[in-house]
Specification:
homodimer, about 270 residues, alpha/beta, Rossmann fold, four-stranded parallel beta sheet, 12 helices, 10 strands, about 45% helix, about 15% strand
Chain lengths: ~270, ~270
């Protein structure tokens, strides 16, 4: 079973892509809604949360872990890969690979949470080959609240996005990485503001594709046990609200249950 | 010692008013930064968090508890008052009393988080005398992120505020309650958008005044032990970031320490 976790419902954008490419695989999802959002938290706290989230998924039967959250991937991706027995995928490696493929002039823009941008991980992963890539990463902290408020197309949202993207446009980036699970909801506006010629990278797609390749090479890693293509959802708070959101985002009925990371820690 | 808690640094607006009115009293503050913000959380989760936060303050020596957070006050104020041995103050009772005093035509507007507005507590507390008050409460979820982003005076902030306040202006409220610890930072814009004739109520002021009266009647409730007017700050994550914010907001040096509510629960 493939386990996916995120700070809340945002990681369902990754679930959606995985289900599109791998419809027969069973999934278990954990959204840490009681501690949402992760984007302003410190690296040490994010490592602790990510450890607890991954442990919960393993306890629920996950044999592969996908860190859907960019903030958690930046702070804890390498740490989880080094310490967990099961294979761990994060969303940043695939996003970087996709940005390398799609950039025409090596000018790569990244928008994400404060935690993701402060980590400097995109600059580090694109430092080689030396001088090939210029990375302009900017925190766009209001975009998650705008998506949560469902202000997809409000003029206020467009103005805020213009302000955040202005330095990236000025730096003439040719590629823009949406380094947060919430941002695909704003993709039409982001694309419009950046212009048609800028490639917009949704890490969810690249991550699902990498996972698909992995499962071709390791067919036993995530065999279906029961109903093929099942989706089990757990959240640390308010499963009803999550179920509504999930139903709406995924277009299918989702019954989330409550699960506490504390139970494992205690 | 007076214990004050909030989901993060916002409750320092309450600390500021308490220190202004009661400069000789010792204070212990807890900001639950690891689980910030509280404003979108469910009542049952907020009750659990509030219980843990209050227990931490009592363990640190608090003999009076002030729930600075409106969301926690709405969900758990009555519960804490009923279950804790020490006296508990919340910010909603004083805000309602102040709104009653200041309203000219009984038309009271309230802006707050989703959790505070969904609780319906302002409508309930202003239901008597029957027909005297009309309450128009609206969630203004983006205001906390705007304050955290420090967009105090950005044109985007003004536009967002206009959109949130429009139904309150249309309903011709004569009083506006800022039912969230973050909102006093936007008070100049909020006042400007509402117009000069609308009374703006900052619950922090009313709460500090109620506390002052209580301490006159109960002088032993919060005697100073060591340095008079000391302020001890604890946060569940990133004390350094909190210390910077606190220094800037309060205009004095603050050294926050890390403290875990889990330690008490476990």
């Amino acid at each position: 079973m493939i386990g996916v976790f995120d700070s809340g419902a945002g990681g369902l954008t990754v679930v959606k892509e995985i289900r599109r490419l791998l419809p027969e695989v069973d999934l278990v999802y954990f959204g840490d809604t009681a501690r949402f959002p992760y984007g302003n938290q410190s690296p040490s706290l994010l490592r602790r949360y990510a450890e607890e989230d991954a442990a919960l998924l393993v306890a629920k039967g996950a044999t592969v872990i996908v860190v859907a959250c960019n903030s958690a991937s930046a702070a804890a991706g390498a740490h989880l890969k080094a310490t967990l027995v099961v294979p761990v995928f994060d969303v940043i490696g695939p996003a970087v690979a996709e940005a390398r493929r799609r950039t025409t002039h090596g000018r790569i823009g990244v928008i994400g949470t404060k935690a993701t941008v402060a980590s400097g991980i995109y600059e580090r992963l694109l430092a080689e080959p030396k001088g090939r890539y210029t990375v302009i990463a900017r925190a766009a902290s209001l975009l998650v609240p705008l998506v949560e408020e469902r202000w997809w197309k409000h003029p206020e949202s467009i103005r805020i996005i213009r302000r955040y993207l202005q330095p990236l446009k000025q730096a003439q980036v040719d590629t823009l990485v949406l380094a947060c699970t919430h941002y695909p909801f704003l993709q039409p506006i982001l694309q419009r503001v950046m212009g048609k010629r800028v490639a917009v990278v949704n890490p969810a797609e690249a991550t699902a594709e990498l996972l698909r390749q992995y499962l071709i090479e390791h067919p036993d890693a995530a065999r279906s046990s029961e109903a093929r293509g099942a989706l089990h959802c757990y959240v640390s708070s308010d499963p009803q609200h999550f179920s509504q959101t999930a139903r709406w985002w995924l277009g299918e009925k989702v019954e989330a249950s409550e699960a506490q990371t504390n139970e494992l820690a205690g």
